[in-house]
């Protein structure tokens, strides 16, 4: 059973959170509410999120300050942030949002279809990264259990390598399809960069698997550490 991705919704107005939940419910992921920047930071201490939808104007800690805290933490600095704002003070205000680490900056009222499409891209990228980490972890466990980190040529090891190769091939195919979807001028630069990062990680893991195949003479090569 595939685990659902978590999406963090941050807004001090309950009606806005309700509207976001209505828009994003079709994605069938786990939606987590936070009514303040402080509450959002607390949620980020324990859970991993695919993307954060962050309101700019909030009492106390506003969206810019919240984003700055998120980007300072090693655990959360790479989570995509989409700023939502009901005001528009021109290019300077927008630049401040990107400078704070946002991957996108959307003014209210926004098109529900556009917002859902943008969020779905980051959810897909997050899921592919999770699959990649699982494949790498499974291979590491086998290497550690094989004595001195080497996978022998036995039938059991060969069967495991074949299974891992097939699973990785499925992830590679899905990542390639996602990259093709992003290969146009309208795609977010951050989404394209994240997809390219995922492909590099997949290439590294594929090389590690190929090096473990019997007859290569390479032994157990170091595995990439997916982010």
Automatic annotation (TrEMBL):
Residues bearing the modification 4-aspartylphosphate? 55
Pfam families to which the protein is assigned, alphabetical: Response_reg (PF00072)
Which parts form a coiled-coil structure per UniProt? 161-188
Q: Which domain of life is it from?
A: Bacteria
Q: Which residues form the Response regulatory domain?
A: 6-123
Which keywords belong to this entry? Coiled coil, Phosphoprotein
Write out the GO biological process terms: phosphorelay signal transduction system
Under the heading PANTHER family, the entry gives: RESPONSE REGULATORY DOMAIN-CONTAINING PROTEIN (PTHR44591:SF3), STRESS RESPONSE REGULATOR PROTEIN 1 (PTHR44591)
The entry's protein name is Response regulator
């Amino acid at each position: 059973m595939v685990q659902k991705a978590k999406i963090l919704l941050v807004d001090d107005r309950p009606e806005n959170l309700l509207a976001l939940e209505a828009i994003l419910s079709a994605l069938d992921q786990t939606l987590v509410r936070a009514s303040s920047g402080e509450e959002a930071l607390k949620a980020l201490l324990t859970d991993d999120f695919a993307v954060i939808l962050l309101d700019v104007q909030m009492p106390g800690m506003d969206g810019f300050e919240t984003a700055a805290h998120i980007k300072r933490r090693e655990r959360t600095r790479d989570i995509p942030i989409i700023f939502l704002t009901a005001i528009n003070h021109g290019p300077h205000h927008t630049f401040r949002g990107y400078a704070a680490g946002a991957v996108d900056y959307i003014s209210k009222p926004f098109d529900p279809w556009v917002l859902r499409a943008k969020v779905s891209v980051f959810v897909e990228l997050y899921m592919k990264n999770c699959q990649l980490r699982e494949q790498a972890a499974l291979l590491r466990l086998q290497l550690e259990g094989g004595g001195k980190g080497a996978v022998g040529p036995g039938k059991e090891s060969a069967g495991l390598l074949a299974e891992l190769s097939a699973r990785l091939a499925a992830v590679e195919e899905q990542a390639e399809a996602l990259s093709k979807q992003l290969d146009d001028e309208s795609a977010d630069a951050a989404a394209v960069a994240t997809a390219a990062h995922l492909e590099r990680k997949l290439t590294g893991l594929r090389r590690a698997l190929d090096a473990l195949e019997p007859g290569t003479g390479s032994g157990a090569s170091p595995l990439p550490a997916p982010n």
